[in-house]
UniProtKB/TrEMBL annotation:
Name the record gives this protein: glutathione transferase
Protein's UniProt keywords contain RNA-binding: no
GO annotation, cellular component aspect: cytoplasm
Catalytic activity, as annotated: RX + glutathione = an S-substituted glutathione + a halide anion + H(+)
EC number from the UniProt entry: 2.5.1.18
GO biological process: glutathione metabolic process; response to herbicide
Domain GST N-terminal: 2-83
Keyword Transferase part of the UniProt annotation: yes
Signal peptide extent: none
Residue stretches making up the GST C-terminal domain: 91-217
Annotated family: Belongs to the GST superfamily. Phi family.
Keywords: Transferase
């Protein structure tokens, strides 16, 4: 099969980020499933692709990449002739704003939201454990502060980097998609512009398609 190879799982947030990019640009790709319960991600074949023993990894001929945000940029650059321009690299100011909000996603949003999803969804569902409520509560407080900043931003522009949809918006999808099936989804209700932004980006066909491969409850 032609196209790039993605090693990962559709239910994994970081794999979903890359799949969204591939779907947005309409690229041909092959998803190679990694068996996490058997520890395949820690075996030599996968460590050669991702030395941290994590998913996802991308293979394109001799080129092997890890880190989902870097892979996402590679995919968007490789397929930029598709007409879908989620990096705005032809415009210095717009591309800088994409980078700013992509950093905000990885450095501010992700550290606040991921422990909530991990504790309230992954721990009970995948490991049969009990969520640590103290971690959830402190992360919720952090997330609210981040969402205040997002609310102010999204009351001035339709999307995070400006009045155009970009990788910065897309990158928020996987963890937010999972927050929405936890008991803490209602946190978005206090931020109307953030909520409208979320409804807008989840109506995109690529989001619906990738979402269908993720956990549902
Ligand atoms: C994080 C990858 C990651 O945490 C990226 O690609 O963006 N910064 C990296 N992968 C998780 C699955 S969640 O999508 C993973 O592989 N966990 C298994 C492990 O760490 O052993």
């Amino acid at each position: 099969m032609a196209g790039v190879k993605i090693y990962g799982k559709p239910i994994s947030t970081c794999t979903a980020r890359v799949l969204l990019c591939l779907e947005e640009v309409g690229a041909e790709y092959q998803l190679v499933s990694i068996n996490m319960p058997s520890g395949e991600h820690k075996g030599p074949a996968h460590l050669a692709r991702n030395p941290f023993g994590q998913i996802p990894a991308l293979e394109d001929g001799d080129l092997v990449l890890f880190e989902s945000r870097a892979i996402s940029k590679y995919v968007l650059r490789k397929y930029k002739e598709s007409g879908t321009d989620l990096l705005k690299e032809g415009n210095l100011a717009e591309s800088a704003m994409v980078e700013v909000w992509l950093e905000a996603e990885s450095q501010q949003y992700n550290p606040a939201i991921s422990p909530i999803v991990w504790q309230s969804l992954i721990v009970p569902k995948m490991y049969g454990g009990t969520p640590d409520q103290a971690i959830i509560d402190s992360s919720l407080e952090k997330l609210k502060k981040v969402l205040e900043v997002y609310e102010a931003r999204l009351s001035k522009s339709k999307y995070l980097a400006g009045n155009f949809f970009s990788l910065a918006d897309l990158s928020h999808f996987p963890f937010t998609r999972y927050l929405m099936i936890t008991p803490y989804a209602s946190v978005f209700e206090s931020y109307p512009h953030v909520k409208a932004w979320w409804e807008d980006i989840t109506s995109r066909p690529a989001f619906k398609k990738v979402s269908a491969g993720m956990l549902d409850s």
